[in-house]
Structures are given as structure tokens and as C-alpha cells.
From TrEMBL:
This is NB-ARC domain-containing protein. Residues 43-78 form the NB-ARC domain. It holds the Pfam family NB-ARC. It comes from Brassica carinata (Ethiopian mustard). GO terms for molecular function: ADP binding.
Length: 78
């Protein structure tokens, strides 16, 4: 691999920039039913925790089909 790098440099390869500028974070509102049946308490709890200075990141886990993605979309839209 070192030989390949040396060959590329000898051919005039430019390696000053190896990555482009960082992308900006964008939020996109997801079209959802405004009511999430049975998860109102979970949404309220998650939202309250995320709005404290003590929580910087939160993980969502559970079996498939329990509504993790819907909950995340609701948090995103809020």
C-alpha cells in the first residue's frame, strides 16, 4: 500500500484535502397522525428528559413494532 501511495504522489496526486466541508444539520417535519395512541406518556417523559441539561443523548430500544420510529418522529416534529 505504501508503494501505491508513493506512485500516486509521484504522478502528481494532491492529498491536501481529504474530506469536504461538513454538512449542516437539517430538520424535516415528518407527516404523522398527531395522536400516538398509547405512547403519550412515553413521549412526554422523553421530551421532558431531553429538555434538561443533564441529558445530551437518549437511546430508544425495544422489540420491533412497538413504535420506536413513530416516537422518534414525534420528538423530531416537536
Amino acid at each position: 500500500m505504501s508503494k501505491e501511495i508513493a506512485d500516486l504522489k509521484a504522478k502528481g496526486g494532491s492529498f491536501e484535502r481529504v474530506a469536504g466541508p461538513a454538512t449542516t444539520d437539517t430538520m424535516e417535519k415528518k407527516p404523522l397522525d398527531p395522536n400516538i395512541v398509547g405512547q403519550e406518556i412515553v413521549l412526554a417523559d422523553a421530551w421532558q428528559k431531553l429538555n434538561t441539561d443533564e441529558v445530551g443523548i437518549m437511546g430508544l430500544y425495544g422489540m420491533g413494532g412497538v413504535g420506536k420510529t413513530v416516537l422518534l418522529d414525534q420528538i423530531n416534529n416537536k
